[in-house]
Structure formats: structure tokens, C-alpha cells
Amino acid sequence: MCADPLKLIPIEKWEEIKSAFKCDLPRSLSVISVLETQEYINKFGLDYGFKVFCPFGDVNNGIVALNVKSTYYEVIIQSPKDDTTVLCEALRQTKLIDWTKNIEVPFAPQHIIACVKKIINEKNLKIDHITMTETFLLDTKSSPFDVSLPPASSFEVLSLEYTKLIDAKWPHRYPGSEWYIDLLIKAKLGYGLFVNGELAAWVFIKEMGALGHLYTLEDHRRKGYGELVLKLISNWLLEKNKYVFAFCVDGNKNAYNLYKKLGFKSVVNVEWCTFTKLD
What is the pTM of this model? Predict the structure, then answer.
């Protein structure tokens, strides 16, 4: 039996991947950030099966990472090179990806989308949806935001008691997404603004390192809390010399205007591609 072309890269060797992708910034920002965030999650003993593979074991050929979140089957595909010939061939041959599932390929630049579309056609799959997003990045040399908390308020790591509420308010929730929120909270990647002891707004650092799940409860809106928590979490990341970035779905004017207001710059367009097997 032929060996699979996708070779598992242990976490101890992820630095080699990050080094290979640094030459492709900002396009490969998400690759470096997802690996750093997964390393952080692992420190809490929360290994949920995230695995990274390189085509034929060469980091310069790109990565294919299986990021299965309960019922959500996500395959991260990235390459630091425009030429994806070797990457496509590995995807064509591999037995590690279950092509019968509903699959999402997240934050894919155009050269990756072109590769994925080839595989979709060859394997008789169909595209369900493609979501266009802009990647907004805060300059790593930015000064921390000058912010102060309102009276009787605090900005704290979220606890598990808020999992159900946050999942219920998430517009993109899916069967099993409560597990995902639970994971992020256990990894201390969720932060909430509490006013008079009650949760008013929250923001998360997602498992790929991007900011997300920014939400203000209805009774606390129009008070600037969304902007406040975004500034506070950005300061936390800047202090740790981490990338501060977020994905903005095409047409989301509120998020777009907020990122622009706070000095984030649009650096690259990426797409989320979901596809499945033809009936």
C-alpha cells in the first residue's frame, strides 16, 4: 500500500512551518496565528485532535490541517507559494480527508481557492457556499489603546456558566457549537465586560487566533461596549506581541466601520468555501 502524501508534523516542529510562511505575510497571517493559538490551547491540556500535515513532508509545500470541531469538519489548506501543484497532488491522493462529509475550507486566499476548486471538480463534489471576507490587521507597532473601564465594571476571563448564553446568541451556531464555545472558554480565550456584576458584552480569540464573537446584549447596546471590549482585547494581544486581526464578512458595514475607526488595515481578502458530495 502506498504511503499517504500528507505527512503528520508534530507540534515540536511547527516552528519550521511558521518560518516557511513568514515570507508570505500578510497573506499567510492566519497560518502563523492558528499554529500559535493551537500551541496556547495545548498548554491547557485541551488537545481536541487538531492535526497538521505537510504535502510529502515538506513545509514549503504548504499545510493541510484537520480542525474538526464536534460535528463541524474543517480542513485548513494553505501554501506560502503561488504554485500549488504539489499541494493539489497531495490533496488528490490523500486518504486522510473524508470527502463524503460537509467540508469547510476557511480563510483561503485566491491561489488556495483555485486549488480547492480543482479538487472539487475532480472528486465530483459541489460547492455549497463561498463567503468573501476581508482580513483586518492592527499594526503590531501600534500603541495600546487609551481606555478606562466605566464605573462598577470589569473585564474578565469568561467562565463556563456563560457557554449556553453565548452559544444561543451566536448567529452562526451549529449542532455541536456549544462544545466549541466551551473549548474557547476553557482555554481562557473568551473575555467579558461585566457591568454591576452582570455580563454585558463579550469577545473571543478564536482557535485560529482571529478576534471574533463580538457581541453586546440587547439591554446594554448603544453605550460603546463593543468598541470598548475590542480595544481591551487588542491591548491584551499587543502586550503579548501577538497579531491582532479579524475577518470581516463582505457587507458587514458595522464591523467594517469599527475596524477602520480603531486603525485596523485591510491587508488581504480570503474566502470560506463549503462543499459536499453530490447527491
Answer: 0.94
CATH of 6-131+271-277, one of 1.10.230.10, 3.40.630.30, 2.60.40.10, 3.30.450.20: 3.40.630.30
Among 192, 184, 179, which Cα is nearest to 210's?
184
Three-state DSSP state, 38: helix
Q: Report the distance separating Cα 212 and Cα 245, nearest Å.
A: 9
Task: Tell me, rounded to whole angstroms, the distance of Cα 4 from its chain centroid.
Answer: 27
φ/ψ of residue 166, rounded to 5: -65, -40
The pairing of strands 265-277 and 244-249 is unpaired
Architecture in CATH of 153-242: 3-Layer(aba) Sandwich (3.40)
Nearest to 115 by CA among 75, 80, 135, 86: 86
Rounded CA-CA distance 232/229 in Å is 5
Q: Count Cβ atoms below 10 Å from residue 69 Cβ, excluding itself.
A: 18
d(CA 21, CA 8): 17
Express each pLDDT in 241-266 by its tens digit.
999 999 999 889 999 999 999 999 99
